[in-house]
């Protein structure tokens, strides 16, 4: 065990320092300069502060590891500009059960010095350090440097220059300029894995040092060489908060490279292809799930109006063309969403189905779109072949646009059969994951496409008549209801500022439509200016607004917390987790119809079941990681843990009260 000798009386008795000296001496260490005899005018020179600990003693890197402390430098200079300290790459120093990062033997902490035309420069460095073996001794002092500045050549003593060059070779280069690339992911069992790949030949071995002193444990990681690079498995802290990004120092072939800003993915370690039989089941689920999306509240009015509009056209060839264009719009958009998902996954981001609705600006755009569609359905305005009009007329551009719109507004919905299919995309290779998205698109497009291609189905449709306009107007009201729901979602994401700005935008847009309707060009220009100004201003307000409080929930439910979950399981208490989001319609139906009923409340209380709610309305890396552990990347997900060491049971996405009843026998059997 390390014994920190911090009794200052002892330090002062044993620690003799010449303050403001070019050399410092203390117990078990000597400190001096690696500097030139003369600095050139208008030059930049690398110099070093050399620490020379006794044999088997060491000093520390900027991340000292499990214990210890990095040196501290406070630099004052005259007639020179001094850069930040440059840290050579360290070594791991195991001491008992601890692992430190530092240097055993001589090390120089480097810095760049820029000179001008002055005759001389002076520097003073206030130093604090810790030198350790099994015990540690702190030290402090002032290291000074005074040199002439003249001529065009910086003059080093040959020995000093040689030692300085050796330490300069250990300073890390920028990772982006290296042939190596790093990707970081959290593993389901709780570890952290870094994938090292190279555009050039792979080195024989690599080592990694975490820059973050809290989140990644410094112990020697398990390093596995693969055909494509290296997999480096770290343990992470169980208590430290997950940072927004991580930094690592990669050492390969005795050279070091610094990587920063690495996003932490929530993926499994590898993406292995699934067998043909498993892939067929997943694609079948995706196809069926896509077909059921047509019955979801947002999609159904748009598809229905599109289907009714076919009755206006008796030309079978045009109907078929309309169906194929609609399907093309659906498949293109699903492919685009799939590609975006895979790109973000490859960059280490944690995303899932409906991730775009975690952006308040996207929700704002949908609110405006649905509002305009509803007004169009009511006949308040006509807008040529644009997207508003495209939902009710045969236009080739409109048919494709309706397909695009149908996919985008389907994002809040995760119906039956979709959860398993979407969850599998997180671990599949890119081509298999893309097939899942394509089959989802095929399922969504198939019913409407069948209607346009089948003459028998077309003949069973009602005859055209005045009733069609009535039906179109009727479907405006579900769209208005969708606007109210999305305003509620936006309020949860941004607080009152967001929905107030959006409501003002809808009011001004409606006024602009009235102002420009049937009037001369000048009034139409004014209407356009009003509409664009309202959208721009309100969009900025929504983008910058923040919710004043977290999403509220029933008091019987507690917010998701991994530590609370593990604590409950260790004590043997069963846990039920509701992974939900305000923009998820299925989630809200299950909540009101089952989870927050008096019957369900009685069941949960009887079973002493801890209820946790993981709200994914806004992006939350902890919830994304928890979903990934369950093999899911969409909501709703309902997970039940029956007690200590029990396996997790995932409930269906459409809940019934009988399913909640069944949780009690599971708990009693345990």
Automatic annotation (TrEMBL):
One of its GO terms (molecular function) is protein-disulfide reductase activity. It is a multi-pass membrane protein. It comes from the Bacteria. One of its GO terms (biological process) is cytochrome complex assembly. Keywords: Cytochrome c-type biogenesis, Membrane, Signal, Transmembrane, Transmembrane helix. The chain crosses the membrane at residues 276-303, 324-344, 364-388, 400-419, 431-453, 474-492, 498-515. This is Thiol:disulfide interchange protein. It comes from Bdellovibrio bacteriovorus. GO terms for cellular component: membrane. It is found in: Membrane. Residues 280-487 form the Cytochrome C biogenesis protein transmembrane domain. Residues 40-139 form the Thiol:disulfide interchange protein DsbD N-terminal domain. PANTHER family: SUPPRESSION OF COPPER SENSITIVITY PROTEIN (PTHR32234:SF3), THIOL:DISULFIDE INTERCHANGE PROTEIN DSBD (PTHR32234). Residues 1-20 form the signal peptide. InterPro entries: Cyt_c_assmbl_TM_dom, DsbD_gamma, DsbDN, Thioredoxin-like_sf.
């Amino acid at each position: 065990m390390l014994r920190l000798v911090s009794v200052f009386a002892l330090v002062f008795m044993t620690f003799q320092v010449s303050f403001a000296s070019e050399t410092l001496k203390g117990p078990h260490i000597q400190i001096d300069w690696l500097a030139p005899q003369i600095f050139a005018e208008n030059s930049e020179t690398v110099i070093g502060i050399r620490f020379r600990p006794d044999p088997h003693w060491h000093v520390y890197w900027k991340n000292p590891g499990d214990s210890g402390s990095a040196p501290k430098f406070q630099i004052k200079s005259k007639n020179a500009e001094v850069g930040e300290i440059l840290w050579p790459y360290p070594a791991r120093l195991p001491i008992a059960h601890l692992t430190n990062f530092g240097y055993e033997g001589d090390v120089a902490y480097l810095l760049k010095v820029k000179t001008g035309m002055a005759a001389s420069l002076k520097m003073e460095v206030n130093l604090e350090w810790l030198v350790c073996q099994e015990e540690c001794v702190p030290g402090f002092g002032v290291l000074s440097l005074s040199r002439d500045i003249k001529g065009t050549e910086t003059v080093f003593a040959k020995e000093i220059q040689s030692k300085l060059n050796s330490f300069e070779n250990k300073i890390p280069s920028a990772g982006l300029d290296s042939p190596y690339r790093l990707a970081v992911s959290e593993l389901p069992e709780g570890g952290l894995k870094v994938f090292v790949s190279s555009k050039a030949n792979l080195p024989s071995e690599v080592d990694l040092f975490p820059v973050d002193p809290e989140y990644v444990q410094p112990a020697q990681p398990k390093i596995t060489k693969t055909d494509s690079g290296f997999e480096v498995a770290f343990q992470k802290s169980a208590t430290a908060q997950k940072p927004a990004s991580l930094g690592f120092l990669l050492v390969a072939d005795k050279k070091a490279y610094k990587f920063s800003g690495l996003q932490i993915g929530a993926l499994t370690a590898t993406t292995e292809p699934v067998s043909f039989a498993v892939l067929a089941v997943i694609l079948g689920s995706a196809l069926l799930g896509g077909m059921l999306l047509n019955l979801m509240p947002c999609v159904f009015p748009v598809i229905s109006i599109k289907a009714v509009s076919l009755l206006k056209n008796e030309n079978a060839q045009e109907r078929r063309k309309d169906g194929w264009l609609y399907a093309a719009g659906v498949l293109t958009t699903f492919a685009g969403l799939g590609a975006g998902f895979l790109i973000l996954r490859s960059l280490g981001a944690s995303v899932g189905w409906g991730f775009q609705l975690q952006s308040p600006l996207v929700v704002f755009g949908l609110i405006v779109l649905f509002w305009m569609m509803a007004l169009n359905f009511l006949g308040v305005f006509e807008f040529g072949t644009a997207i508003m009009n495209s939902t009710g007329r045969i236009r080739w551009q409109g048919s494709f646009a309706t397909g695009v719109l149908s996919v985008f507004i389907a994002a809040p919905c995760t119906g039956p059969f979709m959860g398993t299919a979407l969850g599998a995309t997180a671990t599949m290779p890119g081509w298999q994951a893309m097939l899942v998205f394509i089959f989802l698109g095929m399922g969504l497009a198939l019913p409407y496409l069948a209607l346009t291609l089948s003459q028998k189905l077309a003949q069973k449709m009602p005859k055209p008549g005045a009733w069609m306009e009535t039906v179109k107007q009727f479907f405006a009201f579900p769209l208005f209801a969708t606007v109210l729901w999305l305003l509620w979602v936006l309020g949860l994401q941004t607080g009152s500022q967001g929905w107030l700005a959006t409501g003002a935008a809808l009011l001004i847009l409606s006024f602009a439509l009235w102002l420009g309707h049937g009037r001369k060009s000048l009034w139409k220009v004014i209407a356009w200016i009003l509409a664009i100004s309202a959208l721009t201003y309100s969009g900025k307000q929504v983008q910058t607004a923040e919710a004043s409080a977290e999403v509220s929930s029933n008091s019987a439910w507690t917010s998701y917390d991994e530590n609370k979950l593990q604590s409950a399981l260790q004590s043997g208490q069963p846990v039920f987790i509701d992974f939900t989001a305000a923009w998820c319609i299925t989630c809200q139906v299950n909540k009101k119809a089952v989870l927050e009923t008096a019957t369900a409340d009685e069941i949960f209380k009887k079973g002493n079941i801890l209820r946790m709610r993981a709200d994914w309305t806004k992006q939350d890396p902890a919830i994304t990681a928890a979903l990934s552990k369950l093999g899911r990347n969409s909501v709703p997900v309902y997970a039940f843990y029956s007690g200590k060491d029990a396996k997790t049971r995932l409930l269906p996405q459409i809940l019934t009260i009988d399913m909640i009843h069944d949780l009690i026998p599971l708990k009693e059997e345990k």
